[in-house]
Amino acid sequence: MEWSPRAGETTVLAATGVALGLATVVLDPLGRVLVGAAAVLLLALAARDRLLRPRMAAGPDGVAVGRLGGTTVLPWARLQVRVRDTRRWGLRSRLLELDTAAGPDDDGELVLLGRRDLGADPGDVARALRALRPG
Predict the structure, then answer these.
(1) What's the gap between Cα 76 and its chain centre?
(2) Chain centre to alpha carbon of residue 14
(3) What is the pLDDT of residue 106?
């Protein structure tokens, strides 16, 4: 199974970035800097979403996570899957936590992915990963 950001959200990010970039033409110098920075940020996020497809894939060897530095494979034997629910400033956030640390002295790999990264609810993805886990 594979998970990636939704194509529609990526398209909206790119279109908004282009629109903001075009809007810089009619703004004053300070506005150009601020709106131009927002345009660059949105276009960079859209490019990252497009380049890192799929963001996460589960296979017989483990879970492969796409990163800008390459793909990291987290083996099933060491993988711990959890969902973190947090509240900050009145907003609820759910993250899928993939951890390969065997103990306090083992750094392992820690990967945190949110709903936007996965294109699905982290709780649903965690249940799917647990069902796919061999053994």
Answers:
(1) 20
(2) 16
(3) 73
